[in-house]
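dude i think i finally got it to work??
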Amino acid sequence: MRRMATVTALIVLVAAAGMLVLTGCDSAWYEDDWDDDWRDDGSYNKTIYFYLNVADAGGDPLPGVTVWIDGEQQEARTDDEYERLGQQFPPDWRGWRYNWDGGPFWVNVQDCPGGECTFEIMVTRPGLQSQRSYVTFNRWDPREIYVRQTFVMEPRVGVRSAEVITAPQRAEKCSLEQ
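look at this
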């Protein structure tokens, strides 16, 4: 009886080994960027939110301005009233006024040359000088990023309609991640 159990166990063991040889090890679970999920030294995937303060020369909100993010015209236009960033933001951002917000936008910085993605932020409105600024993201930025930008638009005088100027202030970015 004992010999029969040993023979049966041996047959089962040989059959299991044969199945392993025939089927191999499936690595379908393996992600190409698996190390990115557990390492704290950077992430390729970014989620980005934009807050814009688009004003006239007097600092009042400028409604109806068209916003372009990374070359794509956004459906929503700027509002005629400001809202304020809340307490979840860093102290120097709290209470900052904006009249356009957009996102989330997703980007994988691996898909960008040199591992850095630069987004253009542009605002346009007929009769006013168009403006743009740039913000760059890379692997070492946090996964979730907030961007704020101020634009002060003035009447277009003596410029070609397609001319766009760079905003006097740079875009700023922060993260709420600790």
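The helical segments are 2-23, 34-38.
im so relieved honestly
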